[in-house]
Design goal:
The protein is of the alpha/beta class. It has 8 helices and 7 strands. The protein has one domain: NAD(P)-binding Rossmann-like Domain (Rossmann fold, 3-Layer(aba) Sandwich). Helix 4 links the parallel strand 4 and strand 5.
């Protein structure tokens, strides 16, 4: 049975990735910062009981080292890894006025966490392995009022391409997916305070709607599959055309 690690798998895009790979017959390993959120999902969806879940903050070096030690001892190797974990943004606003601690939090959570996991994942992979980093359209264009988040996603783009050239020497493919606006629980929370946000945001998308999380995972599944066997160091943009405007 093939093994896949999906970080941040308790909600949103990560949870959809977990569901997809369970349905594909993989042994799914996932983690998040709060086990209570995961346990709620398992109680609602019995199909998730086969998932090997760990509570871990992947921005923290000691926790990442412990997580991967456990994975290595239990499974020996990984076939696929999806670096998805990304918490609620704390560094929004004009860059000059954002608190330094908030900038550092975003740096750790939205870039350093991917960096740490990628390093360990590559060590657990053999030829044929695939890593998909979840980037963002904010990593391919400027994003005022979310400058540090955008910088982190730009960094993930650079990391993906550079490491891809190293990893392919071992037969491991590293690629990325850059979602546009995707309806997840985070948007549900925003909608409570601003009921019109769904329609307002959808209007700026050429396709006139949000992406479904499953549409993002379609791209992830493709990049990890043999159908993408000749794709190395690239990013699939899944944004309904937003980045073209």
């Amino acid at each position: 049975m093939k093994k896949v690690l999906i970080t941040g798998g308790s909600k949103g895009i990560g949870l959809e990735a977990v569901r997809r790979y369970v349905s594909l017959g993989f042994q799914v390993i996932t983690c998040s910062r709060s086990s209570s959120t995961w346990l709620e999902k398992v109680s609602e969806e019995p199909s998730l009981r086969s998932v090997d879940y760990y509570e871990a903050d992947v921005s923290q070096e000691e926790q990442v080292a412990s997580l991967f030690t456990t994975i290595s001892e239990k499974y020996g190797k990984l076939d696929v890894a999806v670096n998805n974990a990304s918490p609620k943004l704390e560094s929004s606003g004009c860059f000059e006025s954002v608190d330094i601690s908030a900038l550092k939090h975003t740096l750790l959570q939205d870039f350093w966490s991917h960096t740490l996991c990628l390093k360990y994942e590559l060590a657990l992979m053999e030829s044929g392995g695939a890593v998909i980093n979840i980037s963002s359209i904010n990593g391919i264009r400027p994003t005022p009022n979310a400058s540090m988040y955008s910088a982190c996603k730009h960094a993930i783009e650079g990391l993906t391409r550079s490491v891809a050239l190293e990893a392919i020497e071992k037969g491991i493919r590293v690629n990325a997916v850059a979602p546009g606006v995707t309806w997840t629980p985070r948007w549900d929370e925003r909608e409570k305070d601003k009921p019109e946000i769904h329609d307002d945001v959808a209007k700026i998308v050429p396709l006139k709607r949000f992406a479904k999380a499953s549409e993002i995972i379609d791209a992830v599944e493709f990049l990890a599959s043999d159908k993408a066997s000749y794709i190395v160091g690239h990013t699939i943009v899944v944004d309904g055309g937003v980045s073209l405007t």
